[in-house]
Structure formats: structure tokens, C-alpha cells
Design a protein that fits this description.
Two copies of one chain form a homodimer. Chain A is an alpha/beta fold. The first copy, chain A, is 43% helix and 14% strand. Chain A contains twelve helices and twelve strands. In chain A, β3, α7 and β4 form a beta-alpha-beta unit. In chain A, α10 packs across α11. Chain A is elongated, with a radius of gyration of 24 Å. About 1% of the residues of chain A have low confidence. Chains A and B meet through α4, α5, β2 and α11 of A and α4, α5, β2 and α11 of B. The structure holds a DNA duplex.
DNA sequence: TATAGAAATGACAGCGCTGGTCATTTATTA
DNA sequence: TAATAAATGACCAGCGCTGTCATTTCTATA
């Protein structure tokens, strides 16, 4: 019923300690000893007792994921990817939804880490972009990995997984340009999220490259929400000079813009093209379906967790390429930006 | 830095054992002793070492939540509610996304419980409705709480939180009837989910009460997905005798039906009224917004966890009303079923 | 072939807590 | 006030594992 390390040891004909060494990837275990132990572990289906390991070693085998994201699909995907990696490495995942705007968010994170004795933390925006949090975590010596917007790996970002929002936004904008649009508006996400800034920059770069000077009136501040899209689109379509295309910072905003267009009896894509970003499930379910950029969130999360384990596991082979992963969301063209004719 | 039970004991002027008694809600602790200890715990901010507790007592302070639900909003809400309760009781939540249709799902659940040494499990559909799982869990003596469709508490369902889908569906159907509709169709969810059957029954009961015999052609089998709604609505609107209203088993199906109506150039709600169920965020974001029934998932989850703790905690006061919570989702009328004139 | 030095392995204590047993103190009741 | 019950403490073992350090075994070199 309950297999302990003792059982494995006697089955393999070695000491408990040696089994422990194998379990923890410690050096100084001869190959054949290692194999013997592994065989015993497999034969007996040994599952180490996490509580005992924690207690004896004073470290833990769980990592945390803090989120405050109204986008449920994003969170679910992240969880999925993180859990995949956790299962592979025998770790557990602790999730912690919270309010990023809480004044004592830093303390809350610290408390979480210390109370649950976490081995590490995966941070997504907006937490991954809060310098106070990174500083505090470094100070107490907790490993963490950040998923952030960026395109250029650098030593300073050694514990980051980069998502190249700039390039993806550039591509989307380019797609609109190729469709013949020149008056392209941009609906921003939250200012606190650097992804919003990166996407804006990509949009601007694409325009500039075509010799188009971005029109400030076409750049509407907002937040990552449906409502923001509704409002933003309304504002844009009330301009005397209206845009012929809108690039929304994410699918939710785009869906809001779509909703708004419907209210104003604007035909999509004939009178107005709309593109989103993220490829969340509902981007396929709007009418018409949204052109967007696919962000492989599950994979991103897996990589983030792998990176974390590489840092957090004391004896893991550091040989593995420690290069930073960079993901470039890819363009998905759907009906919301079909050729206007 | 690290406060142990010893520190609390000396601070409170009692023995370690007494602190332990307080921590574990054991009887035979005088009120003022209890208060003294609690004061010390608060003063020192004592956080018991979970690993040590687990190890020594051979029980754990985490519960599991298994999900396989394409509906991210539902999952997020459940997590939120479960976590609220967990924090309150000092438990942790382990999430476990999986495939409900996997052939060895029962074994997988058993493994999860045993490997992670869970104190209990919260099951939502479809897991909560799989008799094999309930049996297996009972056999190995693991506490669990199920969230299921139902209206009548009974001893047999003592570990269930009930959601009265029947009554809510009755109300929605009634709303459509009051709007003057008589040809009301029903788009079913997955057969495996009893919620689908309950909602269908509520729909049928409402019709029958009005003296309308449900038309079998108006009842379309399907699944809880957008695509199913697209297909179902298409099928219905190709009938020679078309319905004037569609009640979809959930918001996603309803959104699909909406999409389909758009494709067929059917005006909503003028030519066709559509109602959903669940009040997921996007039910407000479709065009037009969906009439639906609000399911308080966060609260439901909280109650489920509370119920679980009541059973799982050995010394918790069983005095608390052990009556089964029954939730009746409430009708939310929006534009998708506005008066057709 | 002997031997220093390195590598592999094992013996043992102890992580922080709980559960059990029993002795002792304190409160309650007749 | 004695008798009984309730509350508390003292003490120990032990949960299953890891850390430390002593010991054994191997490897390389002369």
C-alpha cells in the first residue's frame, strides 16, 4: 500500500541514503547503483512523501502562480502549461488569484512565498512587470520566472520568457496595410502592461515603415476589456476623419469594438476592418470571426516553468541550453479583416 | 524569522501539547487557555509547518479540484470560491485539469488523491455525476463533495451542493412564454451532464403547464459548445415550422445560435428570441446581449468547500447546520429576448 | 603491488509536529 | 469537604526523509 524509501532501499540492496541520493540527483552515485535503485523505484512504484521531503530538507516542491487577469482563457492556459511541467518534475502548483492593484501586493506575495514555502514563482503581467516584486523576491532569495513582452534576450532578463509582441503587432498592422488600409487606428490595453506598449510600438513601426505618420487621434488609450473596446471604437467612429481599420490590443477589446460597430450599424469588414490579438477562443466566435495573433500560452507557460526548475533545482543539469525562449505570436487572418471591396 | 510551536507555547505560558490541542480543535481546552494560545499565535504570527503536520498526523491540508471544462469562466469562478474557503480554513487547493472521457479516469483520480494525499475532493460535472468515481472514492475513504443538478435535498445526497437547474430553466421558459412565444425550441448540452437533462425537464414542464405539448423536433441534442449552438440553430431554422424562440442550455450554445442566426440573416430578437444559461461574462458581450440565468459559481464553490471541510475536519463542530445548500439560478432578462413586436 | 587520494556509500541524528500514555493540577458537583 | 470530572503537562516515539560526517571501495600513480 504505502511504499517508503526503506522498501526501495532493501529491494535494491542499498542504503536509504543512496536511494535518497538518486531521488535528488545528487552526484556521486555509480551508474549501476543508480540503475538498480531506479529499477526498484519502478518496480515498487515508489512515490516519495512530499511532506517528509519538505520537512527534512526545508525546501518545498511546489511553485506558485499569481494571477489577476480578467481573461479566464489566458489563466486556464497558463495553468495547463505550468501543470504539465510540474507533473513532469514532480512539483505541485499553487495558484493565487489576487488583486494586482492592492497597495500591499508586494507583502502579499512575500507572505505567500514564505507561508507556503514555495520553491519558486511564475509571474505573468502585470506582476512580472512590477519592479518592486522582483526586487523583493530577489532580496529574500526566491527563484522566479517572468513572462514579459520583449524581443531581445539579455543577461538582465535571464529569468524571463519573452513574448515578442512588437513583431507580432508589426505583422498584424502590415496585414492591414496590405489590405489597402492607410487609416488604421489602435486601441490600447492597460498602460501598466508593457504588452500594450510593445504592441503599440509594433503598430507604429509598421506604419512608419510604409511612410505613414501615425495619427495621434487614432491611438486610443484604454484597458484590456470588452468595455474599453466598445468605448474606444465609438470614439474613433465619431471622429470626422474615421479610420478604415482598427487594431485592438487584444481580442476582448476587438470584440468590444465589434459590438460597438454593430450598435452604430457599421458593417465589418466592409466599412471597418478589426483585428485583435491573442487568439482566445472567442475570437473565433464573434461575428465576423476576428483576425488576430496566436499566442501559444500553454507552451509559453511550460517553458517558463522549465526555466524556473532549471534555476530552482539544486542539482539539475545546468548543461541544458539556458538560452531565453522568445515567442513570436503568429498572424491568423479571419473574416474581420477580409479584403474590403 | 521562523516561529515554531515551542515559541508559541512559551509565549502563552502553556505546554507545547496544549498549543497543539488548540491548533487541532481538540476538546478539553478551557476557554481562557484557548484565548491565551490564540493570542500568542496572533502575536507571533505563528504559521504551523504544514509539512511537519502532514508528516506527523498523516493527513494533509489540501483539497483537490478536478476539472475538464471547456468553459474557462466557470473554472476560474470555481477556483476563486474554493480558494476563498481554503484560505479561511488554512487549506491549500490543488487543481487538476484532465480528460473526463479518458478510460482510466477513475484510476487517475485515485492516484491523484493518494499521491498528493488529499484531504478531500470537490467534484463538478461531469465528474460529480460519474458513479464509478463516487464509489471508488468512498471505497478508499476519501471525503468528497459534489456539485450537481438537483432540487431536492436527500440523505443520499448528503455530500452534495445542489443547483436547481430545473426551476431556473422553468423560469426562463416561462419568460419566453410570457413574451408570447409558443414555438420554443431547446438546444441541449452534453447528455452526460445531468444539468442538460434538468434544464430540458424544466423547459418541458413550463410548456406543459401552459398546455403546450413539447414538439420533439424543437428539442435538439448537442453539447455545451459554441459549435453545437451554431449547428443546432441552423437545424431548427431549416425546419418548415420554425421556432420563434430558442432556449439554449448554456450561454456558449446560445452564442453559437446567435452566430448562426447572423449567418442566416435572422434578426434577434425580432425574428427569433434566444436565451442562454449561466451568465458567463460573454453573455453580456454578444450582440444582442443574452437573456440568461445567473449561476453564482463563486458562492457555490465556497459552499462546496465548506461542506467538505465540515466532513473532512475531524474535530470541527458538527453543530453547524448540515443542511444541503440549494442554489436557484436567477433569471436575467437582456436584449436577446426583448418583446417581439 | 602498495598506497595516497578521490569517489561512493552508509550510520545516525533530527526536521517540527502529532498521538498516545500517564501523572498532576484545577474546576465542578454532591 | 470529599469525591469526581475536566484540563493540562511531561514525556516519548515516530512520521519519511535529508544533512553531516565517518567509513568503505575504487582509481590512479609510483
Amino acid at each position: 500500500m504505502k511504499v517508503t524509501i526503506n522498501d526501495v532501499a532493501s529491494h535494491a540492496g542499498v542504503s536509504i541514503k543512496t536511494v535518497s541520493r538518486v531521488m535528488n540527483n545528487e552526484p556521486s552515485v555509480r551508474k549501476d547503483t543508480y540503475d538498480k535503485v531506479m529499477a526498484a523505484i519502478t518496480a515498487l512504484q515508489y512515490q516519495p512523501n512530499a511532506a517528509a521531503r519538505n520537512l527534512a530538507s526545508n525546501r518545498s516542491f511546489s511553485i506558485g502562480y499569481i494571477y489577476d487577469n480578467p481573461n479566464a482563457y489566458y489563466v486556464i492556459d497558463m495553468q495547463r502549461g505550468l501543470l504539465d511541467a510540474c507533473r513532469k518534475h514532480g512539483y505541485e502548483l499553487l495558484i493565487h488569484p489576487t488583486n494586482a492593484k492592492s497597495p500591499d501586493i508586494v507583502q502579499e506575495v512575500i507572505d505567500l512565498v514564505q507561508q507556503s514555502r514555495l520553491a519558486g514563482l511564475v509571474l505573468t503581467p502585470p506582476f512580472s512587470e512590477m519592479p518592486h516584486i522582483a526586487e523583493a523576491l530577489e532580496k529574500i532569495g526566491v527563484h522566479f520566472v517572468r513572462i514579459i513582452s520583449g524581443s531581445t534576450p539579455s543577461p538582465k532578463l535571464s529569468n524571463c520568457v519573452l513574448v515578442d509582441d512588437f513583431t507580432a503587432a508589426f505583422k498584424i498592422t502590415n496585414h492591414l496595410l496590405e489590405l489597402g488600409h492607410t487609416d488604421i487606428a489602435f486601441l490600447c490595453g492597460d498602460e501598466e502592461h508593457s504588452s500594450s506598449g510593445e504592441r503599440l510600438a509594433g503598430y507604429q513601426a509598421a506604419l512608419t515603415k510604409r511612410g505613414i505618420t501615425p495619427n495621434p487621434k487614432f491611438i486610443v488609450p484604454g484597458s484590456y476589456s470588452f468595455e474599453s473596446g466598445v468605448k474606444g471604437a465609438k470614439q474613433l467612429m465619431n471622429l470626422s476623419k474615421k479610420p478604415s481599420a482598427i487594431f485592438a490590443c487584444n481580442d476582448e477589446i476587438a470584440a468590444g469594438a465589434l459590438f460597438s460597430a454593430r450598435l452604430m450599424n457599421i458593417a465589418i469588414p466592409q466599412q471597418l476592418a478589426i483585428a485583435g490579438f491573442e487568439n482566445s477562443p472567442f475570437s473565433r466566435q464573434t461575428w465576423p470571426p476576428l483576425t488576430t495573433a496566436h499566442q501559444p500560452n500553454v507552451t509559453i507557460a511550460q517553458q517558463a516553468a522549465e526555466l524556473l526548475f532549471r534555476h530552482a533545482k539544486p542539482n539539475a543539469s545546468k548543461m541544458l541550453s539556458d538560452k531565453q525562449p522568445v515567442f513570436i505570436p503568429e498572424l491568423l487572418v479571419r473574416e474581420s479583416t477580409a479584403v474590403s471591396e
